[in-house]
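[Discussion] Sanity-checking designs against the backbone

I'm trying to build intuition for which residues belong where. Below is a structure token string of 251 positions. I'd appreciate it if someone posts a full sequence so I can compare it with mine line by line.
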């Protein structure tokens, strides 16, 4: 098991984005919106489309992910990472869609200037691809992992009507995954990164959290809002700092 990872430097927000297919009112630039609603998505009018992310300046990429999509379990993607025209990574693989999201963690961080993502989902019953959220960028991993006191769960949007007989009729409107991560062992040198993550989260940008970047499946990944508490120093002179944050899926 690898130490958890946080992605907070999303190149999609500053890159030049282009796509070979896009609905007139749902352009590829919608990927810069923090909202996970299909009304703010990039929609390709076909079931195979390529998204090209041209970084504003050469930078590191370790993770490519999409979230809140309409993709099916049969979808696949080809990810090509290049620098100055030289291909550094070129792989085609199943997307392993779980709850509308897919995450690809590269074996190592690559310094690049272009990431091309071709998504193929020919059996999609909608007849189009809807991608509201995407992350392309590096992944920061602390030296030590989070505490076993951490937990995960759901926020539920449920409308309930109770009849005079006491019968209950719940109507589910939305389900939002969440995680409460407690960490007792950050190094003092890592607190600068923690403060930077909190600054990015405070302006409304989404943060990617991977509990185990080395896992075969990244179904527990959460891309959304991060709310962090104070950084503590519970062990006196020891090089250990504590920080607890809550991560909630962006809907």
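Best answer:
Here's mine. Compare freely.
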């Amino acid at each position: 098991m690898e130490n958890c990872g946080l992605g907070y430097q999303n190149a999609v927000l500053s890159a030049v984005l282009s796509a070979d297919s896009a609905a007139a009112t749902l352009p590829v630039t919608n990927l810069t919106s923090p909202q996970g609603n299909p009304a703010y998505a990039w929609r390709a009018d076909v079931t195979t489309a390529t998204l090209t992310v041209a970084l504003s300046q050469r930078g590191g990429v370790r993770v490519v992910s999409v979230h809140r999509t309409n993709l099916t379990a049969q979808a696949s993607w080809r990810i090509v990472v290049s620098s100055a025209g030289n291909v550094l990574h070129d792989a085609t693989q199943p997307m392993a869609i779980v709850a509308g999201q897919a995450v690809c963690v590269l074996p190592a961080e690559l310094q690049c200037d272009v990431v091309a993502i071709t998504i193929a989902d020919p059996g999609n019953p909608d007849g189009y691809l809807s991608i509201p959220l995407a992350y392309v960028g590096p992944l920061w991993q602390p030296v030590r992992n989070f505490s076993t006191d951490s937990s995960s769960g759901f926020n539920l949007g449920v409308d309930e009507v109770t009849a005079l007989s006491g019968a209950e009729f719940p109507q589910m409107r939305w389900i939002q995954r969440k995680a409460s991560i407690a960490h007792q062992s950050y190094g003092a040198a890592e607190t600068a990164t923690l403060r930077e993550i909190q600054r990015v989260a405070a302006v409304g940008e989404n943060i990617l959290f991977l509990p185990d970047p080395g896992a075969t499946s990244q179904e527990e990944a959460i891309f959304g809002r991060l709310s962090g508490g104070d950084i503590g120093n519970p062990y006196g002179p020891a090089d250990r700092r504590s920080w607890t944050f809550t991560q909630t899926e962006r809907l």
